[in-house]
Specification:
heterodimer; A: 591 residues; mainly alpha; 43% helix; globular; disordered N terminus; B: 459 residues; 12 strands; 12% strand
Chain lengths: 591, 459
């Protein structure tokens, strides 16, 4: 079958979908569609299949569930269901973390209170939002952005739990908004200020070796906007005459931006409105108007007044890629962020990373090009419209490999380890007696010790894994990447595999009365009812977790069924069925 | 092995064309391997200090002229204004003309006992580089200097401008493959996650937790629980072998296979392993680095039962990206490394393995001499330690530069061009480890660009 033409963005026409489905029948999980009728005058509405609904919802939520798949299917047909679902998501209110964290503060905060302990409620609420939150698309994109715009409680933020929570809320609020606004909100947020040391950065002192801090200047360009090398719109690197990539900036540019980002520090505390750069401090308790969640404030005397070198590219502003001397610090910041946000790299750089986080590790250049074109212009002349970008990513033909026949070797990706858990918990309506989700006691050693990642828990600004990671073997040899496999070590795989075993054998509705009130248990009522029939039991689990029994490979199906039949104990039979499917390579794959 | 072929390999490596003439990586390494097994045991332990260690405060010159240059460049004494310099009087003397950070008493004792050496101003280079050459357009330099992940990858992979997805530890395993065929575990074992350092072209590392492997909770040795293991293995074996699966599924299944294969082996060995007074199993709170090193020591003590003759371990410590709070944080960071390394060395001596084990440090980069207010920023060359009984210790190798802004090796703000390349550093360690001289180019691709192939710090 031919790949779909690359110039055509957006979702398939019905006719194309029918044609492609008809000749793409090799895919085991696809329900066969009726053959193409000869030139029908009006297209016949074709419903989204459950299999395809699962594929889409694993790209756009914290895990497909049968209920959400049914809801998606009922929205219309293949030409409009996905788009209508996205439309509805865009309109939903934002689920947040901060109020829950604030509610966990003792009042008053006693002397010697372990403030860092309030990071735990942030993680709890994150699980609550991802499992039960209504704004799934927004939260999924926020999670992707949190791995591009990284802050972490590990390090200097550990005693600023409100700032860390509010930063994540910022990402959720801006996730489907405007990139330029996102960039500014991130830049001025005190969590980022602390994490990458822009907060408190000050001008050089003449006659000394003291000079502005380069940390944020470097990472905002390298990680959050343009990357290290000049890109074509399709995400490929531009090469010089010697075949080498061309750097996007040099050390002088970093020093220029370092000078821009001077003079910003904690906003004056509500208790000390006439504070100074030297004496301003974070307010640790959540009193009204506390500065832990306010944008940083400019202290003019500490701002560098000279000219600043910024990025040079065709059409770059300010002219000459030089910010003039003696502007206000705020004007400098606006000019500098405009200069970054309008760099031609931003579209392909951000688009490709979002594609990799949501859909596939190895998008074709044409896919990146289509999404980057949407970033550059959403159709109404607006640049950086993230809602349009996300829509373009999810509706692209290449996000639908089963329908469009994109090479199976490259399509899809490895599910992030934590998304394997959230999908599982969503599929099984996991809950605890206390009503809390994902309380720390559910993870021996913490969530990162079991799944290798967790919200606000990155070991550094470089996230839990690298977008360029390729494991040794055929993936590296073929020049492909599989970023999430950096977390698939023998150790972490075993940790996660064991987690699913414990969950399936000892943390179900059957054991619920004996569990701790905060232990998450899964609802296996339907499986228990089918336990006597191994075929029906295994199929039920596969329906829940894979979207269809047909998604199981022959060996997975046969071995799981055989293992179920080795025991007469209902609990063990159900546990084996769930364990084998949840730890299978089939479930690990996000197709 | 015949000499003519060896010369070819060397020439190919020196030119950076590792896989010339259409040969696949597999065949290069198949031909590079030596013959016969090793009669002895050796271990290399890579300690990576993530974030970029500010090593100009770790080993400090103490002669008046050099110290004054250092102190001025760092903006004066730590604690006074934005100064970052360690006061002269508090430095721990180690050698004529140098002192250690005051938190590093353990390292001081190792150095004094000639069990530790310092490698001065080492960093990624493709060829020897002067400041004039650095400033010349087109001069070959490792790409993206001063960037964390790129320079970590340079340390791990020695890739220069090539796009290698393998690391030098991994390529050591490739080169020695035929000599370690009876080992029950891969040559490379990580206690700190997966990096390019240990990825070979052919060889794969084994990654365990800081306390060892985790066993599979649902598996047993008999009945239904044993059958579960067999069924699980059948599923992943089929997934791994299936050509209709995606590469993602196959690659994931490969890890699952190895996890099952090695977990019992490793934990069986660790259960038999001895304990160490210097790194006790209980009663004392160990740092995360000490916990990793305790497991390394236990693995070394289990070498015979696992038929191991050569092992490369990877351990790490984090928090070294000291843009902020440098002065406040360094005692914990450097003191933590010093204490952990000393206790590891002591554990090695308890079992008489100190001469067979060499620990060496890596870090993203050195840092700027100049201050950004209360810390330092990303730079290039820096100082590393090598520790063990086979180290010609008590000496500083390489060329410790004059720490003066604008000096002949400073490319700005106190960023120093390395005087020794990581290729030379790695080749010296690999050579001690048993990699034949003509094969060093496979491990350290740019070694042919440097006159000195061995820095001489290993006996």
């Amino acid at each position: 079958m031919q790949r779909r033409g690359t110039g055509q963005a957006g979702w398939l026409s019905v006719a194309t979908a029918l044609m492609l489905s008809a000749c793409g029948g090799g895919d085991s999980g696809m329900a066969p569609l009726p053959p193409v009728s000869p030139a029908p005058p009006a297209p016949v509405p074709v419903a989204v299949t459950k299999d395809e609904a699962f594929r889409f919802l694993n790209q756009s939520t914290f895990g497909a569930t049968e209920a959400e798949a049914a809801r998606l299917i009922a929205l219309g047909d293949v030409t409009n269901s996905y788009s209508r679902w996205i439309d509805a998501e865009l309109a939903k209110p934002v689920s947040t973390l901060l109020p829950y964290v604030e509610a966990a503060y003792p009042n008053p905060v006693p002397t010697g209170f372990n403030i860092a302990s309030l990071n735990a409620p942030r993680v709890e609420k994150w699980f609550d939002n991802t499992l039960k939150g209504n704004d799934q698309l927004r939260q999924r994109v926020a999670w992707a952005l949190s791995q591009i715009f990284v802050v972490s409680q590990v390090g200097a933020l550990q005693n600023l739990p409100s700032a860390t929570a509010d930063f994540y809320d910022l990402l959720a609020r801006d996730a489907l908004g405007d990139y330029r606004k996102l960039l500014e909100d991130v830049t001025l947020h005190p969590a980022m200020g602390v994490y990458l040391s822009m907060l408190g950065n000050q001008q050089a002192v003449t006659g000394t070796n003291l000079r502005p801090d380069e940390n944020y200047a470097r990472e905002v360009m390298q990680l959050m906007s343009i990357g290290l090398v000049q890109l074509n719109t399709d995400g490929s690197a531009q090469l010089d005459a010697g075949g080498q990539p061309i750097p996007t900036y040099d050390q002088n540019t970093i020093e220029g931006f370092a000078r821009v980002f001077t003079g910003w520090k904690w906003a004056c505390p509500s208790t000390n409105p006439t504070c100074t750069f030297t004496n301003t401090r974070p307010q640790l308790a959540p009193v009204a108007g506390y500065n832990q969640i306010l944008p940083m404030q400019l202290y003019t005397a500490q701002h560098e007044t000279g000219t600043k070198k910024v990025l040079s590219y065709a059409g770059a502003l300010p002219s000459g890629a030089l910010i003039p001397a003696n502007q206000t610090g705020t004007r400098d910041l606006q000019d500098a962020l405009d200069n970054i946000a309008n760099h031609p790299n931003v579209g392909p750089f951000i688009s490709k990373q979002l594609i990799q986080k949501l859909v596939t590790s190895n998008p074709s250049p044409a896919y990146v090009q289509r999404v980057a074109a949407t970033f550059n212009n959403d159709g109404s002349g607006k640049r950086g419209n993230l809602a349009a970008v996300v829509r373009s990513i999810l509706l692209d033909a290449e996000a639908h490999p089963a329908t469009t026949g994109v090479a199976p070797a490259a399509a899809g990706k490895v599910k992030e380890p934590l998304l394997r858990l959230t999908q599982f918990w969503r599929a099984y309506n996991a809950q605890s007696a206390s009503g809390k989700s994902g309380v720390a006691r559910n993870f021996a050693g913490g969530v990162t010790a079991v799944f290798g990642e967790g919200p606000g828990l990155s070991p550094s600004v470089f996230n839990f894994y690298s977008p360029g990671y390729a494991p040794p073997g055929e993936i590296a040899n073929q020049g492909m990447v599989a970023p999430e496999l950096q977390l698939a070590t023998e150790y972490l795989n075993t940790q996660a595999t064991n987690y699913f075993w414990t969950q399936a054998i000892a943390r179900t509705i059957t054991q619920a009365p004996t569990l701790n009130v905060d232990d998450m248990f899964i609802n296996t009522t339907e499986e228990i009812a089918l336990a006597a029939d191994s075929e029906a039991l295994v199929n039920r689990v596969a329906d829940r977790l894979l979207g269809s029994p047909a998604r199981m490979g022959a060996e997975l199906k046969a071995q799981t069924k055989a293992q179920v039949d080795r025991s007469t104990n209902v609990n063990t039979r159900v546990a084996d069925a769930i364990y084998f499917v949840a730890t299978s390579p089939e479930y690990m794959l996000q197709r | 092995m015949n000499n003519q072929r060896r010369r070819f390999l060397k020439a190919a490596a020196a030119g950076g064309a590792l896989y010339a003439f259409g040969r696949t990586p597999d065949t290069v390494y198949a031909q590079a391997t030596g013959v016969g097994g090793f009669g002895d045991y050796k271990a290399l332990v890579c300690l990576f200090m993530f974030g970029g260690n500010d090593s100009w405060n770790m080993v400090v010159p103490t002669t008046p002229a050099e110290y004054n240059a250092y102190n001025t460049s760092r903006g004066g004494d730590a604690g006074v204004g934005s100064g970052l310099a360690i006061p002269l009087a508090s430095l721990l003397p180690i050698n004529s003309g140098f002192g250690l950070h005051p938190s590093m008493t353990g390292m001081q004792s190792l150095f004094t006992a000639q069990r530790a050496a310092v490698i001065a101003n080492v960093g990624p280079l493709i060829r020897p580089t002067t400041k004039a050459q650095y400033q010349t357009a087109g001069w070959e330099l490792p790409p993206q200097l001063f960037s964390h992940n790129d320079q970590q990858d340079q340390w791990h992979s020695l890739r220069g401008k090539a796009l290698l997805k393998s690391g030098w530890g991994g390529r050591v395993a490739d080169v020695l493959a035929a000599q370690i065929g009876s080992q029950q575990l891969p040559l490379n074992v990580s206690l700190a996650g997966q990096t390019y350092f240990q990825a070979g072209v052919n060889a794969r590392p084994y990654v365990m937790g800081s306390n060892g492997a985790t066993t599979f909770a649902g598996f047993g040795s008999s009945g239904v629980n044993f059958a579960r293991r067999q069924a699980f293995e059948s599923v992943i074996n089929a997934a791994q072998a299936s050509t209709s699966n995606t590469v993602y599924e196959r690659s994931f299944a490969t890890v699952q296979q190895r996890a099952v294969q090695f977990a019992d082996l490793v934990n069986g060995a660790l259960a038999q392993a001895r304990s160490f007074t210097a790194l006790p199993d209980s009663g004392v709170t160990l740092s995360p680095l000490q916990t990793q090193l305790r497991t390394v020591a236990k693995m070394i003590s289990s070498r015979t039962s696992l038929s191991m003759s050569r092992q490369v371990f990877f351990v790490s410590a984090g928090g070294f990206d000291t843009h902020d709070d440098l002065v406040a944080d360094q005692p914990g960071l450097l003191g933590g490394v010093s204490t952990a390394v000393k206790s590891f060395y002591d554990a090695l001596t308890e079992m008489g393995m100190e001469n067979s084990t060499t620990l060496f440090t890596h870090s993203d980069f050195g840092r700027t001499l100049t201050s950004n207010g209360d810390g330092s920023d990303h730079a290039w060359g820096g100082v590393q330690f090598v520790v063990g009984g086979a180290v010609r210790g008590g000496t500083i190798y390489g060329d410790y530069p004059l720490l003066q802004i604008g000096s002949t090796q400073d490319v700005g703000a106190g960023r120093f061009i390395p005087s020794v390349s990581v290729d030379q550093y790695a080749a010296t360690l690999a050579s001690w480890f048993g990699v034949a001289d003509p094969d060093l180019g496979l491990v350290a691709p740019s070694i042919g660009n440097f006159a000195q192939r061995n820095l001489g710090f290993m006996a």
